[in-house]
Amino acid sequence: MxxxxxxxxxxxxKFVGCCGAYCKTCKPFIEGSCKGCKLGYEEGERxxxxxxxxMKLCCFRDNKLETCADCHEYSKxxxxxxxxxxxxxxxxxxxxxxxxxxxxxxSKFIKLANNWKNAYGKLK
Length: 124
What we know:
Elements: H1 9-12, H2 27-31, H3 54-62, H4 78-84, H5 89-104, H6 106-113
Helix pairs in contact: 5-6
């Protein structure tokens, strides 16, 4: 199990994946079966060059961004748009999360996301 109770809002940005998933409230992350999207890379516990996630490589390694929401190429990016175009409810929700962050910022997003029971939830 991961201890995330003491994470403040600024620290919580580390729990926002490049695609818009929110790891802090994601059940597999909390239970320990997932390492999260961004955690461990800055500290050297994980090697970003070994990641199989194209978005992670582009966002974190190559462009040094917090998430794809910060990218000026967001609307034209084939990598993120192909991901969001996959079949499944969660991909649409991750896109909504990213677009919410782009419009409203991380602070408002995290205040809402901290109440979720999954990596996505309601943005109202």
